[in-house]
Design brief:
- The structure is a homodimer of 348-residue chains.
- Chain A is an alpha/beta fold and 348 residues long.
- The first copy, chain A, has a six-stranded mixed beta sheet.
- The longest helix of chain A has 25 residues.
Chain lengths: 348, 348
Amino acid sequence: MVEEKTPGVPYDAEHRRSLGGSEATALGVDVGGTKILVGAVTKAGEVVEARRYRMDRSTQELTLSSIRTAVEGFMGAWADTAPLALGLGVVGQTKPAAGLWVQAMNLPIHSPVPLGRLMRKQTGLPCVLDNDVHAATLAELRWGIGKEYKDFIYLNIGTGLAAGLVSNGQLVRGAANYAGELGHMLVDPGGSLCPCGQRGCLEPICSGDGILAQVREGLIDYPDSILCEPLRDETLTASQVFQAAEAGDPLAMRITSKVVQALSTALTNLVNLLNPAVIVYGGGVLKDNRPVGTSGLMEKVSGLVSANALVAARRAFIGIWPSHLDPDRAGLLGAACLAWDYLEKRGR
Amino acid sequence: MVEEKTPGVPYDAEHRRSLGGSEATALGVDVGGTKILVGAVTKAGEVVEARRYRMDRSTQELTLSSIRTAVEGFMGAWADTAPLALGLGVVGQTKPAAGLWVQAMNLPIHSPVPLGRLMRKQTGLPCVLDNDVHAATLAELRWGIGKEYKDFIYLNIGTGLAAGLVSNGQLVRGAANYAGELGHMLVDPGGSLCPCGQRGCLEPICSGDGILAQVREGLIDYPDSILCEPLRDETLTASQVFQAAEAGDPLAMRITSKVVQALSTALTNLVNLLNPAVIVYGGGVLKDNRPVGTSGLMEKVSGLVSANALVAARRAFIGIWPSHLDPDRAGLLGAACLAWDYLEKRGR
């Protein structure tokens, strides 16, 4: 396990003192497919310290030991006031009340893991967990858009694609805490096969992994595309694809146009169905789309949603905005928010 | 205004006495596109008396005067214990807190109407209103499926198509009390034009009006269809189309197959997105599909949803069931439920 300090997220002693030195914190653990971000966060949502650790996802056991080592590493290195609690945001399905990580698709969690109990045993802290997009949505409720609006959608597009649905200030969880799987909304009947078994889902068209897969396939027809080289070098990102489309690369334009079409269809469906005031977005894929220009991808999506939604729904709909929360910290803030929510319920 | 007693819903004096004679009631007014159903309903959801009145929807003024006359007619004819409050379920958009009927598409409500205030002035009773499908969903919460499940969807297919979404025992209302417009989910990109302006919406494929329109169009290609005569006689119903499909009529089979496909796509999207425990359905179109046989339309839809939804969502999903509430009374119970919810909040 190599400990890597997050580039650009150093421990800032001066900033720390400005926060009052001994201000209480909760720990957040953002468990992603390739990295683990651990941080200490104040009740006001200030990240006091954050460190990044590698995830070894070869097996379920190594996945869990990566999490244990990351938390141990952080608590050893960051010898400040003892944190009050620990929250974990993980991909896949969870049972928060039981502290259970039920299953995941992007990490090899095949049998339910009592992660809450395991981490409590390790750290001595109260430990709570939830799905990562649910957690980021709760952070929006506490520190972001939720301070202004009670009905909103948090759209996360990273490696995968999911949404957090908020109705009247409450996260919609569903019967098994699994609500928000927007990635498998059917937007292109007869389209390409999704790992979920359906054809034409949103995720393979618009997610980071999906966009790269489309480049890979498309290079057969467009061998001269400027995406060829970065794909071969494994440095290609979704943002580069959108930029190449702006620059007129035909393959990039074809993929980007499909992303805009599919995303606007799905979000129009959501606006008609849930009548939100706002959609805020975050996640790696859309990160470089902020600040949003008039030619930006999400501006186009926003224009289509406003044009196509039902009159009464569109009148109440203010727009599609990038989240004000730092996109590199959304998962971490979400995880820490779980801990603060827990503490608040217990009157701390 | 002609007063018509609902066939099969006579005043049953013996049943009334069995309820305790003077049991308290609230009035419900179910304002539909072609009729108005007014009834007295006990707190336990028993319909003590119900009468049906004609709706004249030539103009906004005549629509409102139809409602006034219906309520006046009912209160004059039904000289029992004074009801405690009056609830109105209306098509279109409402602002319940302001007692405002904002607009409707199937009735000529073009400018906002202070219907709550108008009815209070007329009856002297506290008057509350809401959208009719929201109201029916609240009735499911109080007297139906909500007694067992906290996360469910109420699907209403009548002249139009809409849904009531319930998360953790709460109706999802949205920012402008307009959530639930499932009818305009895109299920058939490039399909026929919907009055909303989009192509390929669910409603023109699956609603009662939509099914009849498809028969009308389809008769050009299938002039020998057994649907020809009942369509000409204006007696054709959606149920007859489904029955004709079972009997092997090619046009009916084509339409029914499209209904099954579109509905299962939309409901799979809903199950993935909202992770409900159950979907219950009501409304005129599906009325004759109960009791549901293995060859029934909704059985086929149910099978497809269970096959196509994500594993975790489908594991938590119990099924698609007809509502236990009388389909002829769902709107009336919904309207009365609004009144009972109001009374309960005020401790009555």
